[in-house]
Design brief:
- This is Type III pantothenate kinase.
- It comes from Bradyrhizobium ivorense.
- There is one protein chain.
- The chain contains seven helices and ten strands.
- With 261 residues, the chain is an alpha/beta fold.
- It folds into two domains: 91 residues, Nucleotidyltransferase, domain 5, CATH 3.30.420.40; 117 residues, Nucleotidyltransferase, domain 5 (2-Layer Sandwich).
- Helix 2 links the parallel strand 4 and strand 5.
- The protein starts with a strand and ends in an 8-residue tail after the last helix.
- The mean pLDDT is 91.
Length: 261
């Protein structure tokens, strides 16, 4: 079995694949101070609920945008799974051309998303990943990663608004019934929600116009489920895009002579 770990700035996803299907997945708040031992205790308890145990895991693949947390995830794999993990950006071959000025600076999550999308959809593609940041990434017609757009995510926007304006309250993120709010809370909810939708629609339209070609748009990420059905600009919502990409990374590296256990 494979343990796939997708670690973002806000949340981390741990998923188990048995060679044919995803059999379980769990989400945890990302904490850079969590040790390998703490990860192991947490993971073992959750796996036991599915009649699984750590000894069943024979491979591990990790994509993380939090460099200071990779050390403990690597130790989790080495100490408790007894395998050397594949880490995107370190020892994993992705097999995808990266056509940017500085390919080494492209986040591992963006490249893994590209692999996950290409496993199911024909390019060219636009991938909309809504998390701590919102990223709109472009995959060319030949399957190459060609860059994209990064903007503050919806939760960052809400926190910045509250922090900078003392009289504005914290609000719950939800889809308002009307665009025009009739009180402060509903006005903020509309601005955050429909403003985010407008950002997505506007950037998709500009990307398509700049490239002058039809493109399939796929949405993923922790908050994308709130937005994908609020706009016709998104063709598919895929909550498992990143872990599917990690599975593809594992498959592409499985036969490589890297000395992993």
């Amino acid at each position: 079995m494979l343990l796939a770990i997708d670690q973002g700035n806000t949340n981390s996803v741990f998923a188990v694949h048995d060679g044919e299907h995803w059999v379980a997945q769990w989400r945890s708040a990302t904490a850079t101070s969590r040790t390998a031992d703490e990860y192991a205790v947490w993971l073992a308890q959750l796996m036991a609920m599915h009649k699984l145990d750590l000894g069943m895991l024979k491979a591990c693949v990790i994509a993380s945008v939090v460099p200071q947390a990779i050390f403990n995830l690597r130790n989790l794999s080495r100490r408790y799974l007894h395998v050397e993990p594949l880490i995107v950006g370190e020892n994993a071959e992705l097999g995808i051309p990266v056509r940017t000025l500085k390919p080494a600076e492209v986040g591992s999550d963006r490249l893994v998303n590209a692999l996950g999308a290409l496993a199911l959809h024909a390019p060219p593609l636009i991938i909309v990943d809504s998390g701590t940041a919102i990223k709109l990434d472009v995959i060319g017609s030949d399957g190459a990663f060609e860059g994209g757009v990064i903007a503050p995510g919806v939760h960052l926007s809400m926190e910045a608004l509250h922090a900078a304006a003392a009289k504005l309250p914290r609000i719950a993120l939800q889809r308002p019934r009307r665009v025009i709010g009739n009180d402060t809370v509903s006005a903020i909810q509309s601005g955050v929600f429909w403003g985010h939708v407008a950002l997505i629609e506007g950037m998709i339209a500009r990307i398509k116009a700049e490239r002058n070609e039809a493109m399939t748009v796929i949405a993923t990420g922790g908050v994308a489920s709130l937005f994908h059905d609020a706009t016709q600009a998104i063709d598919h919502f895929d909550p498992d895009l990143t872990i599917r990409g990690l599975l593809e990374v594992h498959r592409r590296n499985a036969a490589a002579p890297t000395g992993r256990g």
